[in-house]
């Protein structure tokens, strides 16, 4: 698994989202996801939305994913 594929999956699964994904070892990743759909949602709900875009890859190909989830307003964009 590579960071670019994870970014593509997140951005495809969350319309309007922009994701930046990093991961050096191919199984542990960090991502910042900015998405208008996060507005009014608690962090846990936001994370679940991102995990849903990755499906069965979570806990398998992707061992760990550290998330930072923001609305465009929170990100200042």
UniProtKB/TrEMBL annotation:
User: According to the lineage, what is the superkingdom?
Assistant: Bacteria
Q: Which GO terms describe its cellular component?
A: cytosol
Q: Which GO terms describe its biological process?
A: DNA-templated transcription
SUPFAM superfamilies the record matches: BolA-like
Instruction: Tell me its family.
Output: Belongs to the BolA/IbaG family.
Kindly provide the name given to this protein in its UniProt entry: Acid stress-induced BolA-like protein IbaG/YrbA, predicted regulator of iron metabolism
